[in-house]
Design a protein that fits this description.
379 residues; alpha+beta; Rossmann fold; OB fold (Dihydrolipoamide Acetyltransferase, E2P); 2 domains; 6-stranded mixed β-sheet; 6-stranded antiparallel β-sheet; 10 helices; 34% strand; binds adenosine-5'-diphosphate
């Protein structure tokens, strides 16, 4: 086992700066996930750690040893890719044994190791089969087993679950987590899937356009995103971003207004006319009343309604227990670009496209972002 340190790593391909100024240290035995949209540089970082790419600038240390000039096969890392290539003419047992044979491990020890690995991945009953006699999930497990059998100091996994169907992906994800808890091998895992990142990681590294946006424990990053990119990347459905203007102690979106909580006013010292982005997660938006019900109520009822926002439903997506509603915020002018907003309602609510609804934002849960830089200003 080992720690992995990246010191100011950059990689350029001709005119493309794939990654820039990457610094982090994965402590011995931890499970870190590199996550971000496609093309943000995740695989380049992983391949550079493995020794399959060379950094243009920077140093990599594995187990406190500088490995910049050490070839991949001598770095004692095992990498598993999305397209796991098993040897088709070899049995599962022979596939598992392959790396050990190459390293001159004796037959008895190899046999013991294969049994152990097969047991830990529940593939003992498959040892005599050829890869083509296995399902996708089983093949992926064998690929993982082949990496584990080598007992590397570091595991590098590049989107290892993305070829699996949804159910199997969930199951294998849970197995991977258990496996890590049992073996404790330092692991760096690449994915574009924020659910995988949130569920697997001790720490996540969020990347965008080749740069680190934030590093932290999943829940901490989710609750305290450093900027709008991180905030909108983590969470499904994603955080809503609503451009607002401050005026008269209110937040204005077109002709609708929300009360600005005093804590925000004091912390940010907002100026009249100042513009910013307000962020709110779908789980912090609640349906108050539909327009039909609104019409039945006496007008003065509105005096008690704290911060309603009127929206018109565009699309509904039933998700089982809840329905995802995609709506647009009603604005004064029909020519103004509509702002969209997403939230979930209990499945019992009968909502249809075209309905006008009133929703309530939980103002204790909002984020304020600088509309130009995207930096989090509040909380
Ligand atoms: P990710 O894994 O996050 O999808 P990659 O690390 O594969 O991203 O790629 C990061 C950037 O570097 C992308 O713009 C990609 O096109 C570019 N890139 C990656 N590999 C090469 C290469 N061999 N030659 C040129 N550009 C590359």
């Amino acid at each position: 086992m080992a720690n992995v340190v990246l010191e100011n790593i950059s990689r350029r391909y001709n005119t493309t700066q794939a990654i820039e100024g990457i610094n982090f240290e994965v402590p011995d035995g931890e499970f870190w996930v590199l996550v971000g949209p496609s093309g943000c540089g995740k695989s380049t970082i992983l391949r550079t750690i493995a020794g399959l790419e060379t950094a243009t600038v920077g140093n990599i240390y594995i187990n406190n040893r500088l490995v910049n000039d050490i070839p991949a096969r001598k770095r004692d890392v095992a990498m598993v890719f999305q397209n796991y290539a098993l040897y088709p003419h070899l049995s599962v047992a022979e596939n598992l044994a392959f790396g050990l044979k190459m390293r001159g491990v004796d037959a008895i020890k190899t046999q013991e190791r294969i049994q152990q690995v097969a047991q830990s991945l529940s593939i003992e009953h498959l040892l005599n089969r050829k890869p083509k006699q296995l399902s996708g999930g089983q093949q992926q497990r064998v690929a993982l087993g082949r990496a584990i059998a080598r007992e590397p100091q570091v595991f590098l996994l590049d989107e290892p679950l993305s070829n699996l169907d949804a159910q199997l992906r969930d199951d294998t994800r849970a197995e991977l987590k258990q496996l890590h808890q049992r073996l404790g091998i330092t692991t760096i895992y690449v994915t574009h899937d924020q659910v995988e990142a949130m569920t697997l990681a001790d720490k996540i590294v969020i990347l965008d356009q080749g740069k680190i946006q934030q590093i932290g424990e999943p829940q901490q990053v989710y609750s305290h995103p450093k900027n709008r990119r991180v905030a909108t990347f983590l969470g499904n459905p994603p955080m809503n971003i609503l451009p607002m203007t401050y005026g008269n102690s209110l937040f204005w979106i077109s002709n609708q207004s929300l009360t600005c909580p005093p804590a925000i006013r004091e912390k940010l010292q907002l100026q009249e006319g100042q513009q910013f982005d307000l962020g709110i997660r779908p789980e912090h938006i609640q349906l108050t009343l539909s327009s039909e019900k609104v019409n039945d109520l006496p007008q003065d009822m509105w005096a008690f309604e704290p911060v309603p926002l009127n929206v018109e439903v565009n699309v509904i997506e039933p998700l089982g227990r809840e329905t995802l509603v995609r709506a647009q915020i009603l604005t004064a002018s029909p020519t103004q670009n509509p702002y969209s907003i997403q939230f979930q309602v209990p499945i019992q609510e009968r909502i249809h496209p075209g309905d006008r609804l009133t929703v309530k934002l939980d103002l204790n849960q909002i984020f304020i972002f600088d509309s130009t830089t995207g930096q989090t200003l509040y909380p």
